[in-house]
Amino acid sequence: MAKEFVAEPDLQFTRDVIAAGGSDVKKCYQCATCSVACPISPDNSPYPRKEMIWAQWGLKDRLVNDPDIWLCHHCNDCSTQCPRGANPGDLMKAVRKMVIEENSWPSFLGGLVGQPSLMVLTLGIPVAVVLFLVYINGGFRAPQPLNYGEFINYLYIQGVYTFALVFAVVSMVLSLKKYWANLEANCPINVGAVRKPFVPSLIEAFKEILPHDKFKECEANNIRYASHLMVFWGMIGLFVTTAIVAFNIDILHIAPPSRGGPGTVPIKILGNVSAIAFVLGLGIMIVRRITQPDQAGNSSYFDWLFLFVIFGTGATGLLTELVRWAGSAPGAYFLYAVHLMFVLALLLYLPFSKFAHIGYRTLAIAWGKSAGRDVTLPVVPNYAPVPAQEGGAEETPQA
Ligand code: SF4
Ligand code: SF4
After folding, report:
1. 40 CB within 6 A, ligand 2
2. Ligand 2 in contact with 218 (CB < 6 A)?
3. Is residue 19 part of a domain?
């Protein structure tokens, strides 16, 4: 006999899910078309139908500890086929935001980044820090020849940005540790008792994530795969560029690319190509969100804040370089200061914004690999073909 289940709904959670972007969740009448339409949903407890009813019932504990939320890539194949317009893809996205809030360390920052009413505070912190750095360096000046180190002393930059990076890494690690413990203790999906070890599962997850293998399988929204790939690799290229420049300045004492230090041409090429890929991919994402909301899905404040910060980071980085080439020192210094604000926002809010998807998704996919969660069998008809009659054509029965 099936085990008795007593639902303990958290109706505030349902309201929060709706506010976070799952506004059509109540339209769902559980036909399961979405789970069939999803090209990457596993055969055991497929998603997103079950998540729809858990959200309607306010079953917070199930949803926030459900790794399937992160196996979804928001391609919206399911939403385009939902006969009720319940947009299950958007529900999955909304719950991902709530998982980040639930596991964030420190928790108040998880709440700050997701709240539209706190936008001025969220963006005001990095702006105030950079303006303070400009102020203690003598205010806005345009030293000639162009030297960003004279505009704002590199030691101050190193101090602030190293702190922000360490803070982001520590917060991310603690948040993910909590999330992993929650998956182990409270995952609502029945998985086999035999588990693969963590490290091989993580390696398998990376092998899937780096080429975006699962993204490719989504059909209705294939452009999302290309744009996401550009942003992903562009971001990695920019990170590597920044790390090399910092290493050159701090350890090898080589002049930065802006001052034409030796061996900096390849670094500039890597940085510029990465920035172009990053900005182009982001541009496609933003335009699609505006012009094709039916395919790209509804966009929430949480989505737009993230897009604004990462687009601002890439665009101001590129513009700083272009204006420097054009010979406008005041323009280059101004854009450099704005670029620093965006970079600081990116670092400080990395574990609490949509950026944190990198960590949560990787961990959930690794958990899925460890539990054998990603088994998708090819769809086969449930009848045997009728052999061709002698002298007649083969008959194909109808399902
Ligand atoms: S979300 Fe749509 S497709 Fe999925 S079960 Fe509900 S009504 Fe059916
Ligand atoms: S949005 Fe795409 S990946 Fe996510 S559940 Fe729907 S069909 Fe599957």
Report:
1. yes
2. yes
3. yes
User: How many domains are contained in the chain?
Assistant: 2
- What is the rounded CA–CA span in Å between residue 182 and residue 50? 19
Report whether residue 231 contacts ligand 2, using a CB cutoff of 6 Å: no
Calculate the dihedral angle through the C-alpha atoms of 280, 285, 289, 290, rounding to the nearest 10 degrees. Answer: 0
Domain holding 135: CATH number?
Answer: 1.20.950
Report if pTM > 0.85. no
Question: CA 157, CA 152: separation in Å to the nearest integer?
Answer: 7
**Range of 27's domain?**
11-103
Indicate if 348 and 255 belong to the same structural domain. Answer: yes
Closest ligand relative to 361 C-alpha? 2
Nearest CA to ligand 1 atom 6: 28
Q: Is 41 in the pocket of ligand 2 (CB under 6 A)?
A: yes
CA 15 to centroid of ligand 2, rounded, Å: 22
- Contact partners, residue 90, CB within 8 Å, separation at least 6: 21, 22, 23, 24, 79, 297, 298
pLDDT in tens, 153-210: 989 998 999 999 999 999 999 999 999 999 988 888 877 677 889 899 999 999 999 9
pLDDT digits (tens, 9 = 90+) for 110-139: 888 888 899 999 999 999 999 999 999 999
User: At which of 88, 103, 118 does a domain end?
Assistant: 103
Looking at the fold, whether 146 and 88 belong to one and the same domain comes out as: no
